[in-house]
């Protein structure tokens, strides 16, 4: 069967990565979580003290140190799921913390950060056979992707999902704080100057507020089969 690129974009915490990961596993594609890449740069910046007391980024210093950041994904042999590595260290858990979530949107709005990560993402797609999720995959990274999905869900549903996820992992969570963070990130992500979140003209929209995981998966599988021309 011909290999394609599947671009999955949408707001934060709307289940993009769950659906992308599942589909990739099922059809034997590589899965790339681009949010994890922006989160990794954020973690690097936090550790390097590149935010001032007001939360502003020290842009020049970050620009000078971009070459020190190496992000990769490796398959966990037990879960068979890819995990994120920053300079050889497994940071999969740390990049999901509230501290990183609160700082990531401004990092993702920095033009030279985006340019570096987009170039790396495009290299990952050279061989096709890739499911990539993010905000600008169908619009900027792979405007020629054969299948583009744009996922939405209400902010309240998304905050609840994030809350459940953190609780499950035994990480501290407060629903109101998460909801605020989700709404704030929606705003920054869709209003920033560089590559704002928007639906590509040829993307198929999915509102999954009231879908079960199984229904969502089945919907996506059908779109994939249509895209590869086997239905
Ligand atoms: O999907 P996520 O919540 O892990 O994304 C983290 C942040 O990174 C979010 O604020 C949006 C940003 N992001 C982006 O700007 N472009 C992408 N392709 C992926 C994520």
Q: Can you walk me through this structure?
A:
The chain has 231 residues and is α/β, with parallel strands linked by helices. The chain has a single domain (5-230), classed as 3-Layer(aba) Sandwich (Rossmann fold). Helix content is 48%, strand content 16%. The protein has helices at residues 16-27, 34-47, 59-65, 98-108, 111-124, 137-141, 155-168, 175-191, 213-228; strands spanning 5-10, 30-33, 71-75, 82-86, 89-90, 130-134, 147-152, 204-207. It has a five-stranded parallel sheet. It has a three-stranded antiparallel sheet with strand order 3-4-5, covered by helices on one side. A hairpin with a 6-residue loop joins β3 (71-75) and β4 (82-86). The protein is globular. The model has no long low-confidence stretch (mean pLDDT 93).
What's the quick description here?
With 231 residues, the protein is of the alpha/beta class. The protein is 48% helix and 16% strand.
Write the layout of secondary structure elements.
Layout: E1 5-10, H1 16-27, E2 30-33, H2 34-47, H3 59-65, E3 71-75, E4 82-86, E5 89-90, H4 98-108, H5 111-124, E6 130-134, H6 137-141, E7 147-152, H7 155-168, H8 175-191, E8 204-207, H9 213-228
Low confidence ranges? none
Average pLDDT reading: 93
Sheet with the most strands: spatial strand order: 2-6-1-7-8
Bound molecules: 2'-deoxycytidine-5'-monophosphate
Overall SS class: alpha/beta
Task: Give the SSE order as H and E letters.
Answer: EHEHHEEEHHEHEHHEH
């Amino acid at each position: 069967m011909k290999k394609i690129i599947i671009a999955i974009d949408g707001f934060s915490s709307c289940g993009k990565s769950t659906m992308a990961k599942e589909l990739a596993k099922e059809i034997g594609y590589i899965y790339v979580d681009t949010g994890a890449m922006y989160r990794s740069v954020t973690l690097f910046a936090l550790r390097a003290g590149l935010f001032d007391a007001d939360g502003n980024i020290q842009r020049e210093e970050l620009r000078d140190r971009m070459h020190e950041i190496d992000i990769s994904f490796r398959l966990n042999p037990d879960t068979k799921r890819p995990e994120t590595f920053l300079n050889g260290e497994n940071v999969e858990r740390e990049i999901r913390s509230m501290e990183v979530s609160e700082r990531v949107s401004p990092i993702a709005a920095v033009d030279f950060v985006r340019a570096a990560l987009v170039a790396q993402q495009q290299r990952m797609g050279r061989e096709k056979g890739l499911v990539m999720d993010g905000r600008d995959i169908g619009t900027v990274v792979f405007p020629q992707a054969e299948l583009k999905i744009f996922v939405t869900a209400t902010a309240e549903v998304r905050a609840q999902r994030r809350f459940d996820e953190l609780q499950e992992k035994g990480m501290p969570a407060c629903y109101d704080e998460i909801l605020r963070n989700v709404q704030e990130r929606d705003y920054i992500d869709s209003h920033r100057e560089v590559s704002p979140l928007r639906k590509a003209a040829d993307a198929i929209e999915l509102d999954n507020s009231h879908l079960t995981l199984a229904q969502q998966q089945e919907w996506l599988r059908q779109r994939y089969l249509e895209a590869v021309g086997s239905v």
